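Appendix C: a fully annotated inverse folding record. The material below is reproduced so that readers can follow the format used throughout the book. The structure is listed first as tokens, followed by the designed sequence.
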């Protein structure tokens, strides 16, 4: 038999209170947190074209690796000026 201790006050980790959920309940909450979108028609076609272009650029080595979006845009701007 498993015993459980019930603590009357909030459990804290550092300054943040902690919530304890079953794994099943956690998965339900996680799935509901991010909405799923399904595109149809012109929007789906445009997205497909955008992905194809991105993959072509990636394969051609035109992608920029950077720690942040700001740094990536700076690197991209420097590369564009050089061409």
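Designed amino acids, in order:
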């Amino acid at each position: 038999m498993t015993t459980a201790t019930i603590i009357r006050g909030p459990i804290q980790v550092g300054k943040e209170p902690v919530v304890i959920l079953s794994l099943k309940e956690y998965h339900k909450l996680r799935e509901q947190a991010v909405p799923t979108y399904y595109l149809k028609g012109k929007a789906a076609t445009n997205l497909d074209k955008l992905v194809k272009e991105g993959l072509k650029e990636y394969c051609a080595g035109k992608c920029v690796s950077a720690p942040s979006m700001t740094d990536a845009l700076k690197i991209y701007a420097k590369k564009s000026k050089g061409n």
